[in-house]
Each structure stands twice: as structure tokens, then as C-alpha cells.
UniProtKB/TrEMBL annotation:
<feature type="signal peptide">
    <location>
        <begin position="1"/>
        <end position="16"/>
    </location>
</feature>
<keyword id="KW-0732">Signal</keyword>
<dbReference type="InterPro" id="IPR015915">
    <property type="entry name" value="Kelch-typ_b-propeller"/>
</dbReference>
<protein>
    <submittedName>
        <fullName>Uncharacterized protein</fullName>
    </submittedName>
</protein>
Amino acid sequence: MIRLLTLSLLASVCLGELIPVSNYIGQHKHKCDRELAITGALVQDKIYTFGGCYPIPYIVDPSVENIFNFNDNHNNASETIQIYDIQKDEWTQETEVKLPFPWRSASTQTYQQDIYFYDVQSSQNYQNTGKMWKYDTVLKEFSALDELPFNWHGGLKTCANNVRMYFVGSHDAYQRNMIQIYNIENGVWEKPLFPNLRFTITQMLCGKDAIQFLGTVFTDEDDGMSMGFQHKYSGLIRTDYTTGDTILSGLRVELPIAYNTIVKTNNDKFYHFDVKDEETVIIVVDTVALENRTLEALPHALTAPLFVPYQDDLLFLFGGGKSRFYWGAKKPTGTLKTYSHKLVLESTVKFVHQKNE
Ligand SMILES: *[C@@H]1O[C@H](CO)[C@@H](O)[C@H](O)[C@H]1NC(C)=O
Ligand SMILES: *[C@@H]1O[C@H](CO)[C@@H](O)[C@H](O)[C@H]1NC(C)=O
């Protein structure tokens, strides 16, 4: 157990405890061919993990020069499902059902008992396909849905609310300002929303009264090349569910844009991973309280874990590892092994502003 006290002058302070839990039993390794997180989703008290990518042994032919081949296919994709029961702290292998085909990775969106998959990468295909899949965790059934009927720019982001899934490309602002709407009940694509601001986003969540984005408003002076590699302030942007009316909330957050930052959402909060040379900081943006908190949570440079916020004060981390690509001056150090941990925060009320002595 590691107890960490975070102290910094202006930022909020958080006391957290990192507690090992039962180890992930699936095959996925983050360093497979790219640094990929385990594909997973939370449904009630269970975390489901799907497929994955793992290295397989191979023999190098020393007579073949191969310095430019970065994409050697010495790995395989899995088609199995594992289930972590949070209450029992126990993993089980799903034996009755497999993925429709082996997956390296996929993006997920949960709605009630169903998990939706998009951006599915199969074992051979490195291209993201536009096809969606649904897994019903109660009936234990996969179904193939239609192709996504739109284009997007950058990574596809989603959130779900009130029988609808909302889709936006992270860099759609270069070309369009549209929010695509999928009606979960009848499988119909509804009329998109057209926000009155153009903005690039790092993540979105479906709040109670509005779609919330962490993003940067795009102006005509911004050219594509300069973005993405700078420290830019992100704002909290809100779009009305019915009118598309979009406003900037006034909350500004400085999100370090580094390789392999991971942002996941849970209810009203954004979580942004800032992987540094020797530690990983999690920046939490609370879209209701309109404030940020910094959790200097992990004493390792942990990239690409499956990060599952379960409750406000309880977060799960599975897999991940040391980065092979790093921006910092130093190679990451530390004794990071397979990560299966829960991060227990000492209740949200204990987030206090505290002065350095
Ligand atoms: C690769 O994965 C497939 C499907 O999961 C499996 O049937 C096959 O045996 C694996 N191949 C190797 C070399 O591990
Ligand atoms: C969080 O908010 C504080 C105070 O509003 C601000 O000084 C700090 O820069 C913010 N942190 C981040 C990561 O943006």
C-alpha cells in the first residue's frame, strides 16, 4: 500500500491510497505494437474486458536487414472476455461467449446493460472501421450494428444519455461543427446538432443538462499544424441537448498535451492523465462544481492503463506500463510491473485547499 499526500501551492490537495487488487487475467499487453489500453467497460459493479493484443515469440533472421520495419507483426489478437467483479475483487473468464472476431482494441460506450464498440481494430486490420457492435451483458449476445454514416476528424469521442449516443471527432472543428446523434432505442440517426462555436476536444461527457466538452475553441487563425503540440488552455464547453446552443463555461484548465495522455469520463468528471518522467498525475475536472483537482496519484510513469472511475472516490487501474516513447529528458524509471490497483480517494469532501508551510 502506498499512501500519498499531495501538496501544492494553489492546486487542490488530495489524499489517496493505491491498493493492489486481483490481477487482470486477460492476454492484453500494453506494449504489443502500440501503447494500447485494455479494452474495457463498466456495467454496474462489473468491469468487462474484451480481446486484446499480445506478443508472440518469433525468430529473427540475422541475414535480413530490417531496420525500417516498425510494424513487425509479432503479435496476436485475442477474442476472449473477462469480467472483474468489484464487490468480490474477483476475475472470471467468460466461457459462454467470444468476440465476433479477435480484437486488438476498441473504444467503448456503455448504456444501461449494453456496451457499444466502435473504432474496432481487428487482428489484421490496423485501420479503424466505421462499424459498431453491441454486447448485451445480460443476454451475453453480440450484435452487429450499421456503419457510422458520417466522417470525422481525429479520434472519435462519444457519450450517452436519454437513449441517445452522441458522437464528435476530436478535431472535427477543422472541417465542421456537428454532433451526430444515434437513437439507441430504434437504431436511427437523428438530425445532428450544430453548435454555434467550432472547437476541438479532448473528451466529452453527457451531463444532466448539457453535453460537456473539454476543448479549445477554434478560430480561423488556428492552422492545423500548430495545434496538438502546444500547451494550450482547454475550456469547459457546454452544448444544449436540443438547441445545440454552445457556451464556454469560464473554467480554464491547462492540460499538458503529451503523448499517451488518457482521458476518461465518469458522470460529471473528466480525468486527464499526465504521464511525466517518474510519476503520473491525474487532473480531475469537475463539470458541476466547475473546478479542477490534481491527484499526484501514481509514483510511476504509467501509460495506457485501463482507467475506470467507479465512484467519485474509487477508481480502478488495470494494465498499462512504462512508456517506450517519452517526451521527457529522462528515460522513465521505477519498478512498474503489471498494474491492477484501485485508487481510493479520501472522500470528495476532503478535497481541500491547503497552503504549503
Ligand atoms: C492467435 O489467436 C487466435 C485467435 O485467438 C488463435 O486461435 C491462435 O492460436 C493464435 N495464434 C498464436 C500463434 O498464438
Ligand atoms: C486548476 O485551477 C487552479 C485555480 O483555479 C489553477 O491555478 C490551475 O492552473 C488549474 N490547474 C490546471 C491543471 O489547469
